[in-house]
Structures are given as C-alpha cells and as structure tokens.
Design goal:
single chain, about 375 residues, alpha/beta, FAD/NAD(P)-binding domain, seven-stranded mixed beta sheet, six-stranded mixed beta sheet, 13 helices, 19 strands, about 35% helix
C-alpha cells in the first residue's frame, strides 16, 4: 500500500516518521513552522530501542558513528559518593548495543540527510488540519492546501493538531520541575561517559560526546515559568560545592548557550493516537518527563511502528488501528515509569526520604539495575522490508 502523507513538525519524531514513510514508498511532505532549522538544542542519550528504530530507518550506522557509548558512569551524591554504578558493557551484552550520547543537532542533521531535500518545507505553519471526507485529510498552510491520504501530527507537546482532535483533553501540565542545559564550548576532562547526581530537590547530570565536549543538564524543583536573569550564574550558585566535574562543566559553558525549559507532560493519557486519517506521534501523543531518557526513543518507536503498519495493512484505517493498539499501551507504561523515576530521584527533598532512597540504591546490585532498564530498552522493531 502506498499513498501521500503530510507530516506536521520537523523535529526528531516528524523526520523519523517521514523517513519511514519514504522507505515504504509513500510520497511525504514535512511542514515545519520554523523558517530555519538552526540545529539548536543540547544533547540526547539513545537507548537500544531508539537505536534499533534508527537501524530500521536506515540511519542507525551513521548515528552510531557520530555517538559515544556510555560504558562507565552512574549516580552520585553531591559530595561525590557513588549511589549506583551502571555497567554499560553488561547492558550492551543484554541488548546488543550500549546507550549512546550524541548532540541533538547531529542527530537532527542525520535524519534530514536521509530525506530528499525537497520533502522538507520550512517556514510553513500548518494553520488547519482536518479530515476531508472519509478517505482524505487536509493541511492548510497559509494559501496552500495539501491533500493527503494521511497526516502525521508530530508538532510537539503543545500540539495544535491534538487540541483540535481532542478539545476536551486537559493538555500538558507542569511536572513540578524545570531544566537548564547546555553543551560545553570545548572538550572537558571527564572520568566517566555519563553521570547523574541527586541532591535534595535538584539533579545535575552530564553525557560525554565523541569530540570530547559534553552536554550537561540541571533539573530544579520549581514552579512553572520560573526564570533567572543570569541562568549560568544561578547554577554556579546553586551547585557551588558539588563534586567535580560539575564546576568544570559550568566553567566550560558560554552563558548564551544555556537553554531553559519547564518540564511539562501529558499526564492524562489520550483516548486514542488517531482520528480518521490523522495520527499523533511523539510528544504530541505522549509527552513524558525525561527521567528515563526515553522521550525521543518513544518517538522513534512510533515512527517505525506507523510505517510498518502502513506497509503491511490492507487499508490506512486498518494500519492506524494497529498503530494505536501497539503504541498507546507501550508509551503509557514508559511515561508512568518516567514520572515515578522523577519522584524517587531529584524531586525527593525530605532528608529521611533521601537517606532511605540512597541506602536502597547502594544495596541494589548493578545487575538488578540492568534488569530494570531492559523493561524499556529491549524493544524489537517491526521490519520495514
């Protein structure tokens, strides 16, 4: 089965969906509101499930070549003591690949390069998306009308398409946290590939890149829309006295490189990921907190599952029913686990609760931690051909 599709949103999920559809023979157009894709963003960790999805999309090898495997690291306290060490080699042996770290800009570029250049329309806002009869969907972009057999809404957590399809849904809510992140300006001397450090109501973490630079993030338990006049100075104040390499990472960062976003989520699950000939994908369907590093991986799973369903099913309707049935339970389970991880991680602030958690983590064997990760990482993608 072939057809025409319009993908609304040119982020990781939207580009992955377009690649999948292109690989199964569909004519795809991606419309992206931003006039220029300037590759903004920090870094990302890709687990085995996301990498397997990228393999099926034909870009896994290129992503691996540009990534750095996370073999050594774990979770620490602000004074530097280890709470848990994760054996990346053991995880690799279990699922066939290590978790890898890559700049978002690099991942985004590699995805764009996998599509014909004329398939991506930038500076093009989807003003209206609707079902147009029983077998067509329509996207209106200014004075241009794009008719298609399928519309994929990958327009992010604030999805206008989702709001139009499900007006009674409460939409995204604040998780109670805000995140600041950046990539260092130059390489930093790091002893580990990745780390998380949990303090009371705060988290600091880093992932190392292949070129020696690193992405760091700071998660703070704060009300929505809290902002700082000088974010980097604020972080230096808050994390003063925390163990190395936290001071070194902040010192290697330009103030203008710091990104600041509230952590929102779709806490109320959607009743469906599809409506007529329109499918929701990625954050538009299941925005989750980043505590398991699964947001992008789940979007990549969505993309491959959707393409495989369309390749195998006799009709678009049957394919979308299969996509919805496979993706909603899976993404809901991962989102629930991510939310719980945040509550047991940086959001803990009471000294007794923190002490109990720390003791439990120190007593947990590393192989048990690997088993927990396998629940999310051991996903096998459907084949696209």
């Amino acid at each position: 089965m072939g057809g025409t599709a319009v993908v609304v949103g040119g982020g990781i999920g939207g580009l992955a969906a377009a690649i999948g559809l292109h690989r199964i023979g569909w004519q795809v157009t991606v419309v992206e509101r931003a006039p220029v894709l300037d590759d903004a963003g920090a870094g990302i960790s890709l687990a085995a499930n996301g990498l397997r999805a990228l393999d099926e999309l034909g870009v896994g090898a290129a992503v691996r070549a540009a990534s750095r495997g996370q073999y050594d690291g774990g979770t620490r306290t602000p004074d530097g003591r280890w709470l848990a060490r994760l054996d990346g080699a053991a995880l690799e042996a279990a699922v066939g690949t290590p978790i890898t770290g890559i700049p978002r800009a690099t991942l985004h570029r590699l995805l764009r390069e996998a599509l014909p250049a004329d398939r991506l329309l930038t500076g093009t806002a989807a003003d209206d998306v609707r079902q147009d009869g029983p077998a067509r969907a329509r996207v209106v972009c200014g004075g241009t009308v794009l008719d298609a057999d399928l519309v994929v809404a990958a327009d992010g957590i604030g999805s206008r398409v989702r709001s139009g399809l499900f007006p009674a849904h409460p939409g995204p809510v604040h998780s109670g946290s805000t995140v600041l992140r950046a990539i260092t300006e130059h390489p930093v001397d790091l002893r580990t590939d990745f780390e998380l450090t949990w303090g009371r109501g705060a988290e600091f973490g880093h992932i190392a890149f292949a070129d020696g630079r690193a992405e760091w993030h700071a998660v703070l338990t704060l009300p929505a829309r809290t902002r700082f006049a000088d974010p980097l100075a604020e972080l230096r104040r808050r994390f003063h006295g925390w163990h190395e390499p936290i001071p070194a990472l902040l010192a290697a960062t330009r103030p203008e490189a710091v990104l600041h976003h509230d952590v929102d989520e779709l806490r109320t699950p959607l009743p469906a990921f599809t409506a007529g000939r329109i499918a929701l994908l990625g954050d538009a369907a299941h925005a989750m907190t980043p505590n398991l590093g699964q947001g992008a991986c789940q979007a990549l799973e969505d993309a491959v599952t959707l393409a495989a369903a369309l390749a195998a099913a006799p009709t678009v309707e049957a394919a979308l029913a299969r996509y919805d049935a496979e993706r909603r339970p899976r993404s809901r389970s991962v989102a629930r686990a991510a939310r719980q991880a945040g509550r047991m991680g940086h959001q803990l602030a009471h000294p007794l609760a923190v002490a109990l958690r720390n003791t439990a983590m120190r007593l947990t064997p590393s192989r048990a931690a690997v088993r927990v990760l396998l629940r999310h990482h051991a996903w096998i993608p459907p084949r696209l051909g």
